[in-house]
Amino acid sequence: SPVLVVAAYVGILYLRRRLHDRRVQAWLHKKRRFPLVVVAQPYTCLMAVFMIFYTYLVVSFSILLSRYQWLDPETFTLPNCTTLANSGGWSDYTIPGPLRFMSLISPWCIFVTWIVTLMHWWQHLRSPRCFDEEISWYPSYSHDLAMQVVALPLVYGIFSLDSVLEILRLLTGESYMAISERRRVADPGREWDRILLRVDQTYDTNTELADLYEAWALRCFGMLCFLLVSRQVKREVPTIKYIISTIKDHLRSVATEGDGDRGILEDIKILNDPGKLLFQPLQQTSRIGVVIFVWTYALKSAYLLGLSFLAHMDLQLCGENGKFKPACSLTPYLDGACFLASTLAIYNIVVFEHNLSDILNKGNFRPFAKFLGVKLMVSIVFMQSFALNVLAKFLWDLSKEQINLCYSCLVCCEVVPLSLLLYYAWRPCPDDWHTGDFYGRVLPQGENDAAIQGSHGRGQLADEDASSFDESLLFQQSLVSSRQALHDELTGFIELRGEVKASEAQVIEDLINTLSTGMKATYRPAALFRTSGSCQRHPAPSGSQSLLSTFNTSTFSK
User: Fold this and answer.
1) 502 and 525 in contact (C-beta within 8 Å)?
2) Could you read off the pLDDT of 423-464 as tens digits, one per residue?
3) DSSP characters for 467-491?
């Protein structure tokens, strides 16, 4: 079953690449295709896969309970080789009372988690937005990433429930009775060892696949953090460029060619393009740990999934009777690589979030609560695994199979409060950080203002890049030079060079104010703009005190 789930998820990733396109979505959103537009969405297919897998597990669980009378030990059909008791009087393959109770409630916990996740998805999907309303079933960029993150408890719970079912089949003797009678009679001990190894591999595979999705969820969280900072950089870059350009233009008119201030401004490189020279290197450096984290877990999951698939095909490579034991020797090395990659990814995200918290805390993003919701599951799982291996083995004398069953049942129970925590941290609110997907109206090329006002709002949708932001009205309005002037704001200069008398300047001022209805001119003597700054470091021409006085500049303000 894990193989089928992974195959379905790969198919959904391919479906995302095909369907997350504006033209395809516009075709699907036509009125006569309303049922199809909902069914064909990738998130619908993903939820359908979860539902089918969960239904299969629940049906198999119900059959197991009915056949063995709600896990009554008297009805188990274990082979004779498993009847040895340990020092506590329990067989290594019995189900103690607490484990029996947790096993029975595990499917119900996953059902509650599935309901919470479905409600959370619906809120993100149908959250009101003021752009791209004609393709409303196509989620925006930030909502899509959030939906992938909040599915983490359900994924963990589904794979843990599959482990619970596999271990219960082992402990009740269901897996042993499923093999042919001829093989059971010929060598029951060998067949039992084969089943034990296969169940262990299935348990390890389920755990690693859940951890792989946890790495994917951390990647989605990191992408959201990078997205918010990049949008802030895009909004600030035009202002920085405008300020530098304005100062350069001013110095070109008042300073000599070798002026030191002009040289300083000409040497500015990083601030001329901070997005490329500052943010992109920072983003790439911070993403290294997350990318390595995902690919390392993907490699380990594929490796264990392959071993589990071969074991189910009766091609056993591992164990005492394995046909190629070196094939299983990579597991400890992959464990170490995954631990290192996880530590590096978490450290990169924490450093990025801590140093840019002023930006990330805008719009009620609450990065700490979101990061805690993503990492709390894997932290609990790690500490829980360590605690069970120490306490259960040495204090309660439980076998490996009983410890694995306890671990899987605890995860099934823990995903319920975790899903509620993620609901609190990731639920959409009015006018929160999700509105950053809105770019405003995209400027039509060659159109007038009336066409701009009549154009539809546009935003960044799932799996789209941010290239349209540079063409949007919202981006153009962030340019300092393009905003509407305030009342009585200084917006320009008129330079008068030569000998200008105050009476003559007053005549020009009156002329402009008489002929113009939209601007106001005011004469200011050039002496008001003379400074004792860098211009005095260079000798002025004869008869002048500064560079400005050489031209006797008089200025008008519009």
Assistant:
1) yes
2) 999 999 888 888 888 877 654 444 444 444 444 678 888 888
3) GGGGGBHHHHHTSGGGSPPPTT---
CA distance 512 to 379: 72
| CB atoms inside a 10 Å sphere around CB 285 | 12
Angle at 408 between CA 399 and CA 197, to 5 degrees: 55
3-state secondary structure of 494: strand
- Tell me the two tokens of residue 557: 């303000």
AA letter at 535? C
Instruction: Give 176-230 as a DSSP string.
Output: HHHS-HHHHHH-HHHHHHHHHHHHHHHHHHHHHHHHHHHHHHHHHHHHHHHHHHH
Distance CA 519, CA 292 (A): 60
Smallest CA-to-CA distance from 232 within 481, 472, 471, 469 is with: 469
d(CA 53, CA 55): 5
Residue closest to 354 by CA, chosen among 229, 270, 230: 229
Residue 438, beta-bridge partner list? 459
**pLDDT digits 0-9 by tens, 170-211:** 988 888 888 877 777 777 777 888 888 888 888 988 988 888
Closest by CA position to 112, among listed 421, 413, 424: 413
Single pTM value for the model: 0.78
Hey, how many other C-beta atoms are within 10 angstroms of the C-beta on 456? 11
Q: Is 319 exposed, middle or buried (0-12, 13-18, 19+ CB in 10 A)?
A: middle
The arrangement of strands across the sheet holding 554-557 comes to 493-496, 554-557, 522-524
Beta 554-557 vs 438-441: how paired, if at all? unpaired
Alpha helices in 356-431 (DSSP H): 357-360, 367-387, 393-394, 400-426
The pair of structure tokens assigned to 504 is 């003559």
CA–CA dist 360, 354 (Å, integer)? 9
- Within 10 angstroms of residue 405's Cβ, the number of other Cβ atoms is 27
Cα distances (angstroms) measured from residue 125 to each of 21, 148, 375, 416: 17, 12, 24, 22
Alpha carbon dihedral 15, 20, 21, 25, in 10-degree steps, equals: 90
In this structure, the number of other CB atoms found within 10 A of the CB of residue 156 comes to 29
259 and 547 in contact (C-beta within 8 Å)?
no
The Cα–Cα gap between 307 and 317 comes to 7
Q: Are 125 and 17 in contact (CB under 8 A)?
A: no
Q: What is the CA radius of gyration of the chain?
A: 34
Task: Decide which of 274 and 393 is more confident.
Answer: 274
Q: Which ranges constitute the DSSP H helices of 255-279?
A: 260-266, 274
Q: Is 255 exposed, middle or buried (0-12, 13-18, 19+ CB in 10 A)?
A: buried
Going by C-alpha positions, the residue among 113, 133, 134 that lies closest to residue 50 is 113
What would the DSSP string read from start to end of 67-84?
HTTTT-GGG----GGG--
Instruction: Tell me the β-bridge partners of 457.
Output: 441
For 155, the 3-state DSSP assignment is helix
3 state DSSP class of 347: helix
